[in-house]
Amino acid sequence: MSAAERIPDEIAFQAINPAAYADNSVHDAFRWLRANNPLGKAELEGVYPFWLVTKHADILEISRQNDLFHSGDMPTTFTTIEGDKLVRKMTGGSPHLVRTLVQMDAPDHPKYRLMTQSWFLPQNIRKLEDRIRTIARQHVDHMASLGGECDFVNEVALYYPLRVIMEILGVPAEDEPRMLKLTQELFGAQDPDLNRSRAQTMEGPEALASIQGVIADFFMYFKGITDDRKARPAEDLASVIANGKLDGEPINDFEAMSYYVIVATAGHDTTSSSTAGAIWGLCENPGELAKLKADPSLIPGLVDEAIRFTTPVKHFMRSATADTEVGGRKIAKGDWLWLAYPSGNRDEDVFDEPDAFRVDRTPNKHLAFGYGAHLCLGQHLAKMEMRILFEEMLPRLQSLAFNGEPRLSQANFVGGPKVLPIRYSLT
Questions:
Q1: Which of 20, 109, 323, 367 has a CA between 20 and 30 Å from the CA of residue 63?
Q2: Are 187 and 18 in contact (CB under 8 A)?
Q3: Tens-digit pLDDT profile for residues 257-274
């Protein structure tokens, strides 16, 4: 590797350090990388060498070439060499503790995606609009009942998308707290306030044991759901998964359980983060709230800007299946690449004033839902949920401000606001 390719260790570490996502200093690292080494190689102790892909165009190029850049051959999310070896030992050789759409490549990926895809098409989710609006109104009413002060994350944002996706999936309302807790423990494994053991830091075997325990609890819960829906199919997504077939044969339990996990976690957590990100952005930028109050047709713009600004999914890893070239760099077969979505979403070549929160930003070609074959299945549902919530909330919202210090979760994979104290007036 040439000296020009190598990223300084301190910059590479800042780009992947979960704590840097909690204090937003990760954007300093990404800004430096975009300006000085937009597709450079990191060689840090204890981890496989990897390329950090920080430019919007390069992330797009890699994401659209699914035959050339695989998701499943190496870990799909960043880990240490020790962590990878431990997982392979646990699984008998696979680098994955679960096998969801995220970890799949063709030919399996399109087949598994097709099983549930119709549920998330715009023409089908439109049928849910009235029900989602009822749920949104209930949450705005709840917010109004709190006396003008609340922690928006922990009293509103976490529960609204959770209710929507659990209704679609077919999980009873009384089990929602359990699903929320498990989701937070899975995605919050690096955060001392959210991980299962409440440890300040968890590494190596301890971290993996915690995540494996969370996944086992998910699997145990959904095994019961599967058995029920096989015996008594209903009009819900759980029935589709429980009775799913691949090439005419029933899918195995491991892949069915994995499918439930991705729907039951990503189906609400990222939307919660973006919803809270919208409120955070409006608190910081009262002029943007004034724009929305004056022109409610900007609400879809608020939704996209909140998703861009928050970028709940921070990275996915890809591995090259052949020698190739991206961004002027020679990528070798087997090389591992970190797709830095928050960096792509603040790329100065694509976004004017990328660090500004602007509800009328257009165009807004953010990468928060990914691109290509792995484009987020639930993107239309997520945007609809957020749009409806703000259509219900903004006409009633007279004032909005921070009421304490907001905080982000410590996570380099999936994360967003974890505490958002606000003061407001709702009619």
A1: 20
A2: no
A3: 999 999 999 999 999 999
